[in-house]
Design a protein that fits this description.
The protein contains 4 helices and 5 strands. By secondary structure, the protein is an alpha+beta fold.
Length: 124
């Protein structure tokens, strides 16, 4: 969470909303800053020790994609990742079975819009 101000541009109100929900099954779409200037970025802070520790040790966000092909069901464990996705991936972290069993809820925090309802229950 310490990296928010360095890499992402958001109001104090937007930051407070994110801090209420993260870590958890949410992805917040925010404006980038610095090397991400002019881009809208999905920020996800999972409730997973290894993922958070990795970003903290690196001192910067970890950039990744979903473990599924768009429109297809999200895998809930490493064994369910399709071969095509796995073959194009440099590193896969096996964190065990996903406790939510579905994708994150995606929220455009600037425009107060839920892009995709997922595991997290969000209210504005």
């Amino acid at each position: 969470m310490e990296q928010l101000n360095k890499f992402f541009s958001m109001s104090e109100e937007e930051k407070e909303v994110m801090l209420r929900y993260l870590p958890g099954p949410y992805t917040f779409i925010v404006d980038g800053r610095g090397e991400f200037e002019g881009k809208r970025i999905g920020v996800r802070v999972p409730d997973h020790y290894f993922s958070r520790k990795l970003a903290l040790e690196l001192g910067r966000p970890v950039i990744s994609t979903s473990a599924n092909i768009s429109g297809k069901e999200s895998p809930s464990c490493v064994e369910e990742i399709e071969n095509g996705v796995a073959e194009q991936t440099a590193i896969i972290v096996d964190g065990g079975h996903c406790k939510y069993g579905e994708g994150s809820t995606v929220v455009d925090i600037k425009n107060n819009k839920i892009i995709r309802q997922g595991a997290g229950k969000f209210t504005f």
